Amino acid sequence: MKLSRKENFAYLVSEFRRLCPGAKYDERLLTRPTQVGILGPVLNPEKNLSTATALLAKVLRGRA
Hints:
mainly alpha; 3 helices; flat
């Protein structure tokens, strides 16, 4: 484990990419402005990030 959340997340992402090279990866939810854009003005990204993830996954599945 690393010292910070950011380092831990970066490590986790690199491991996913290494072990699952064919998996789709979308960076849209990494920034707060994009999270707010997906969730709208009512839902708080800190409490509803799983909702944003589900919405993005549904959209990406529809494009496959």
